Amino acid sequence: MFKIQYYISKIIKKLRFSSISQSLVHTTSKIESGSSFVLSSMKKHSFCGYDCDIYYADIGSFTSIASGVIIGGARHPMEWLGMSPVFYKGRDSIKKKFTEYELPLLERVEIGSDVWIGRNAIVLPGVRIGDGAVVGAGAVVTKAVPPYGVVVGNPAKLIKYRFEATTIEFLIESKWWELDDDDIERFAAMCREPEQVIDFMKNNK
User: Fold this and answer.
1) Residues 64/80, Cβ–Cβ less than 8 Å
2) What's 155's DSSP letter?
3) Which among 10, 13, 16, 76 is annotated as catalytic?
4) Partners of 40 in beta bridges
5) pTM of the model
6) Domain final residue pick, 147, 162, 177
7) pLDDT tens digit sequence for 73-93
8) Which residues are paired to 11 by β-bridges?
9) Number of domain units in the chain
10) Is 76 annotated as catalytic?
11) Rounded CA gap, 119 and 121, in Å?
């Protein structure tokens, strides 16, 4: 009985579909149901989980985004007299419009390749997350995250790097995520030992 209920709930979850608008998503990547993906792009072998809101973002390859993540989006104009939608252009939750000024241009979010963003994290507009970085669950990212950096908390703070500096430098230069799938297959079995992969790459240039 439990298995039947589980599969029914999974089916219902999937039936909600995703909302993808004015965006480019590589054929090998996936936007799960319940998620909005607007004016954004996602390269190969990446995904975002359920119930994500992603706006004005460019996402690299092999990047994993957990459920409930919010990336980019509009902001209320704090520098104006009032921040209410009654003062700016666009369809909103309220109908009244005193003026219809254009909002300031939104800053795009840039998310590198081989990035992992944990559940319910928030990435603010204009933030750059470097290749190989990790954003902890529930983190609120307000500023740039360096390549292979690990950030947690609100506001998110750097707590460590995934690898030592020389390894990070090589991986960034290698851009392994841009290789053809056939080339990646050659060292995929070594993925648990990055140093082995590095040796392989050095010996097979």
Assistant:
1) no
2) T
3) 76
4) none
5) 0.88
6) 162
7) 877 888 999 888 889 887 777
8) none
9) 2
10) yes
11) 6
